[in-house]
Amino acid sequence: MHLILATRGxxxxxxxxKMFMQSQMFDWKRQPLLKxxxxxxxxxxxxxxxxxxxxxxxxxxxxxxxxxWEYVFPQESLQEVLAMMDRxxxxxxxxxxxxxxxxxxRKGMGAKKIPDMPDLKKKEMHEVTQKFIPTSGIASYMxxxxxxxxxxxxxxxxxxxxx
Length: 163
Prior knowledge:
By secondary structure, the chain is of the alpha+beta class. It folds into two domains: 26-63, no CATH class; 75-161, no CATH class. It is 25% helix and 12% strand. The chain has helices spanning 11-22, 78-84, 96-109, 118-121, 125-128, and strands at 25-30, 55-60, 150-153, 158-161. β3 and β4 form a beta hairpin. The chain is elongated. The model has no long low-confidence stretch (mean pLDDT 90).
């Protein structure tokens, strides 16, 4: 069974929750498939595998993060942000099952697709940024962008992007 859920909270509490979630053990009911003397699995007259007596073993719950992030940065740094994650050449590439969800997430979050930047795709990472974020072992999908208003903020004393 897979429970899909979202969390929100203070990061240190989320970390405690994650540690507890991934350390839980559960009883897992199984039945061994029976083998004949040659080591082949036995089948009944209907072609179904024959099973032995029910047994229980312990299995650890698997906490698999599917995380949605919002990264806030100055508008003029979009190319640098994509490059530091090594996504500057393929920011518009997504697995088919993720592409279906991306549209819904963009709509729900008031975002739009990242604009096509063909010149950026021709550059090497070091030509765009000196920053580097290790991404080995993870998949990242660039869902979209949402621009902040650029206006006068008298309470801060600046005309700026409203990060």
